[in-house]
Specification:
seven-stranded mixed β-sheet; five-stranded mixed β-sheet; alpha+beta; disordered N terminus; binds adenosine monophosphate; binds magnesium ion; metal-binding; 364 residues
């Protein structure tokens, strides 16, 4: 068992986050299997599913019950679910939200039980509109990170992090389609045709600052059987397995290949959607995560990185932007001072950044 249990500090936050992510993952799994995935189009044209809305409502409900004064930065808003136009999707989401609970009543009680009504659900979703910043307690939520993977039947993650005065203190990632076993090697096919078969797939990664990182099988009851995880102790960067986005529009796959070549890496990249990449390197299934800007004007969102950043750091890694600077979570809803993300074991991170600078510098 990991040492996470030994510390009182933020212990309640840690457990609530773990349980809330487990409950929300039950909902996303049910959408993954049983529902037409009700895709709407947001102004940025990214697909939003009923799973996003439902998972966000359930997580915020648990946070409001336990920490009513905390701020919340969440990806979605309820606008498209309101009024006559939103009725159909609203009813689908509400049916899911009111049916989803942890099977263990004690754990469900810790989360505050069910949401009271469809209207209450919409208001909960809209509680995620904080502007963020460098002061106070702020939860960051991405209810379904990797929506495109989710719709394609690939990897996705339910993401929750607590940021205090700009530092990530608690991070939890629910990955329903990743293998439970930490020792399962990453295959090239892991991002495609995913399965969430009970007993084989479905894992939660979690970390509390200073206490290490853990993995835990996703459980319908909410049980927490935690095992400590660590990055692979790799001596030679040429032996690394690196992860990148499936979506070529999110991370430059050409630049990643050039950087890998420069580092002497011969293994093919593992492409998967979502912060499942952070979890996979944190448990040593992969080694590096390269996210290389495709467009100079794109700013990363805090909910896409907060949980994963802490989990990798607590597992012995280092997470920076392409310049080698730490990610700055103090600046609102986005990481406006950072470009891209490079995550690697501490001993190899400097070498990777050198190669990143060589390759990206040569392009200018
Ligand atoms: P991934 O699954 O790692 O490819 O990342 C998914 C996330 O990429 C989504 O949650 C979006 O917020 C984010 N995203 C959208 N457009 C871009 C872009 N042009 N560059 C980088 N990330 C993006
Ligand atoms: Mg996301």
């Amino acid at each position: 068992m990991a040492s996470v249990n030994d510390h009182q500090y933020l212990e309640h936050e840690f457990y609530v986050a773990l349980l809330a992510v487990q409950r929300a993952s039950i909902l996303t799994k049910s959408v993954f299997h049983n529902h037409a995935k009700g895709t709407l189009n947001k102004s940025d044209a990214s697909p939003v599913t009923i799973g996003d809305f439902g998972a966000q409502a359930l997580i915020i409900s648990a946070l409001q019950h336990n920490f009513p004064d905390d701020e919340i930065v969440a990806e979605e808003e309820a606008k498209d679910l309101r009024g006559e136009k939103g009725q159909e999707v609203r009813e689908t989401v509400w049916n899911l939200v009111r049916q989803t609970r942890l099977e263990n009543a004690e754990y469900e009680g810790i989360l505050g039980g069910s949401v009271k009504s469809a209207d209450a659900m919409l208001d909960l979703i809209d509680k995620g509109d904080s502007q963020g910043g460098g002061k106070g307690r702020i939860w960051a939520i991405d209810p379904i990170d990797g929506t495109k993977g989710f719709l394609r039947g690939g990897q996705y993650a339910v993401c929750l992090a607590l940021i205090i005065d700009g530092d990530v203190k608690v991070g939890v990632l629910g990955c329903p389609n990743l293998p439970i076993s930490d020792s399962e090697p990453l295959t090239e096919g892991i991002g495609k045709d995913a399965s969430d078969e009970e007993g084989k797939f479905g894992v939660v990664f979690a970390a509390k600052e200073g206490d290490g990182a853990v993995s835990c099988p996703l459980s319908k009851r909410g049980d927490l059987k935690m095992d400590e995880i660590n990055m692979n102790p790799l001596e030679n960067v040429a032996d690394a397995t690196f992860c990148e986005s499936v979506e070529a529009g999110h991370s430059s796959q050409g630049d990643a290949a050039a950087i890998a070549k420069k580092l002497g890496i011969t293994k093919p990249s593992v492409r998967m959607d979502s912060q499942a990449k952070y979890g996979s390197i944190a448990r040593g299934a992969g080694d590096l995560y390269l996210r290389l800007p495709v467009r100079a004007d794109y700013v990363e969102k805090i909910w896409d990185h907060a949980a994963g950043e802490l989990i990798v750091r607590e597992a012995g890694g280092m997470v920076t932007d392409i310049e080698g600077n730490r990610l700055n979570f103090k600046l609102g809803r986005t990481l406006k001072e950072n470009k891209g993300v490079i995550a690697a074991p501490k001993n190899l991170h400097g070498k990777v950044i050198e190669a990143v600078k060589d390759v990206l510098g040569a392009k200018q």
